[in-house]
């Protein structure tokens, strides 16, 4: 009986000790530089967002925050895998869009990490709609006209994307599916070269974010047919939503989230989450995000985990239904 009591006391004391250790770790975190890994080429939308986030975190934590571009792999999976394999101490973080986390694993069998097991969700950083744009050389001014043209000219409409497994790619495939049209996907290594070819008329259509499309739309070098948000954009009030255009399944947001390696202490994740949510919702960050056509959306780590699970399920179903394969 005495031995059992001693063992119980030891277990309780150990639990208290571990809890106190976790609290102490959160109080002293961070005590040196952090690194945010971007799994896409430098200069892209996620890289720009990461640098805004890094600057804000650096001022809030009073520590250096380094942004490292690690592009490559299927839809950005090289950088994602690097973070999944990093020490779970809260000092190496991943900022990623929907593609690498919730789409590519359904397309590529070579992706050897499972989202729910490889990462600790930290925070949903920002969300942005996508614009469906076409080259002015295409004689269409609405989604209905685009679909009619594609049906009359099967295989002659090429749509570009930032790569196989990116959200613009899957939205294009979903448009083909729900519109009953035959279009050809042309994958690129990032948005910039795809937009260059859209402007040159080498491809006829693509989805991408307002921040990269708006200057070209205003210059008359491309035409916006629809936006994937639930409501119209104040910047483009004459552009209908996909729902208004009869394609409600295309409603989607291009989101960016922050994750840490699985096993990162819950106290550190909680500290990061609180700091992210406070920083992203500050007036200066809201103004900076608005310039990128994005807005913050604060979620707890648990709520972000549920969001990721729902997104994974949604896009896996689209990948299966559309028969999307590696190219």
Keywords:
six-stranded mixed sheet; five-stranded mixed sheet; D-Maltodextrin-Binding Protein, domain 2; 327 residues; 11 strands; 2 domains
Ends apart, CA distance between termini: 67 Å
CATH fold node name of the largest domain:
D-Maltodextrin-Binding Protein, domain 2
Task: Output the structural class.
Answer: alpha/beta
Number of strands: 11
Q: Outline, from the CA principal axes?
A: globular
The poorly predicted ranges are: 6-12
Helical percentage: 40-55%
Q: What is the CATH architecture assignment of the largest domain?
A: 3-Layer(aba) Sandwich
Domain count, please report it.
2
Question: Tell me, what is the CATH class of the largest domain?
Answer: Alpha Beta
Describe the main β-sheet briefly. Answer: 6 strands, mixed
Let me know the CATH homologous superfamily of the largest domain: Bordetella uptake gene, domain 1
Describe what this molecule looks like in 3D.
The chain is α/β, with parallel strands linked by helices and 327 residues long. It folds into 2 domains: 33-127 and 254-322, D-Maltodextrin-Binding Protein, domain 2 (3-Layer(aba) Sandwich); 131-250, Periplasmic binding protein-like II (D-Maltodextrin-Binding Protein, domain 2), CATH 3.40.190.10. Helix content is 47%, strand content 17%. The chain has helices at 2-28, 45-61, 77-84, 98-107, 115-118, 143-152, 167-179, 191-200, 210-218, 266-280, 283-291, 301-322, and strands at residues 34-38, 65-69, 92-97, 119-128, 131-134, 158-161, 184-187, 205-208, 223-227, 254-261, 295-296. The strands form 2 sheets. A 6-stranded mixed β-sheet has the order 2-1-3-10-4-11, with helices on both faces. Strand 1, helix 2 (45-61) and strand 2 (65-69) form a beta-alpha-beta unit. Helix 1 (2-28) runs parallel beside helix 10. 43% of the residues are buried.
